[in-house]
Amino acid sequence: MKVLVATDKPFAQVAVDGIRKEIENAGYTLALLEKYGEKARLLEAVADADALIIRSDVVDAEVLDAAKQLKIVVRAGAGYDNVDLAAATAHGVCVMNTPGQNSNAVAELAFGLMVMAVRNLYNGTSGTELKGKKLGIHAYGNVGRNVARIAKGFGMDILAYDAFPAAVEAMKQDGITPVDSAEELYAQCNVVSLHIPATAETKGSIGHDLVGRMLKGGVLINTARKEVIDEEGMLKLLGERTDLKYMTDIMPVRHAEFQEVAAGRYFSTPKKMGAQTAEANINAGIAAARQIVGFLKDGCERFRVNK
Ligand SMILES: NC(=O)c1ccc[n+]([C@@H]2O[C@H](COP(=O)([O-])OP(=O)(O)OC[C@H]3O[C@@H](n4cnc5c(N)ncnc54)[C@H](O)[C@@H]3O)[C@@H](O)[C@H]2O)c1
Fold first, then answer.
1. Which of 34, 196, 206, 266 could lock 10 by a disulfide, CB 3.0 to 4.6 Å apart?
2. Residue 79: per-residue pLDDT
3. CB of 5 closer than 6 A to ligand 1?
4. Closest ligand 1 atom to Cα of 161
5. Average pLDDT for 63-78
6. Where in the sequence is the domain holding 58, given as residue range(s)?
7. What is the per-residue pLDDT for 209?
8. Is 162 in the pocket of ligand 1 (CB under 6 A)?
9. Burial of 200 by CB count in 10 Å (0-12 exposed, 13-18 middle, 19+ buried)?
10. Are 133 and 71 in the same domain?
11. Could you report the per-residue pLDDT of 40-68, keeping only the tens digit for each?
12. Counting atoms of ligand 1 from 1, which one is nearest the CA of 225?
């Protein structure tokens, strides 16, 4: 069995070493195609591959046509819109992602932004502490759970809201106080950390009325997605409530206006940095290799994303 790692933007060497170990220990062969540039080179390399590990590399119908022996593609990372799922299904190829592998990285950045906010963006003035403050975790998934774990160390009082019962069960097990609605969460908290996905329901849902419920001096941290924010509403709110702060890992479309309206109370990373750690990349690559071994040896389809 041949497992091809095809990465136009290569993994770190330590991640490649870890992937190789997983694959070779299982008795398979590892082939490496890095910085291939042209699609023709990918088409050639996949011809005899049984399994494929990719990062942001595009796997479309043409690649799948060329990969006559392919059984599985794993996207090392959370998003998988670079893979044509319908074409993969039509070719009988299983597609997986590796969810959760960058969650700690994102959660740590949320705290980096939180400390920066309560210390007034390090402007030389006296700030406040996180200890004893009420933290609202908006969506209790992979990242939200890591935020809760770290918040315990900070001595915060932790509440969370999630739309789905399984997540509420997880909160109870973790000793986190569940609340019944997003409105209730914002109304009770000093800091809210956003971890909802961008769906039809959540897009543009975080804005004036919801965030306006926050306690005096409230801080909103966004390491989720740009699309969930109603930028118009947030700009209006930050203009009205000069006590509120907004810190984001995803630069708003109207970044310049945020800088103007909320000078000293607003910060955006220059580019999305949540998952940008050596560890997150290594974890995702090794998880991809393990998932391939599990699939080829035992037929395990956990984390499959196509039908
Ligand atoms: N900043 C970064 O670099 C970075 C990196 C990874 C992920 N993310 C983003 O972080 C977010 C969370 O990622 P995750 O890995 O924790 O996802 P996840 O799928 O593990 O968790 C998402 C949670 O949201 C809940 N949810 C869905 N719809 C909801 C709604 N309408 N109201 C309340 N809860 C709802 C789900 O029940 C689930 O518990 C995603 O938006 C993802 O795109 C950002």
1. 34
2. 81
3. no
4. 33
5. 96
6. 2-101+277-298
7. 98
8. yes
9. exposed
10. no
11. 999 999 999 999 999 999 999 999 999 99
12. 41
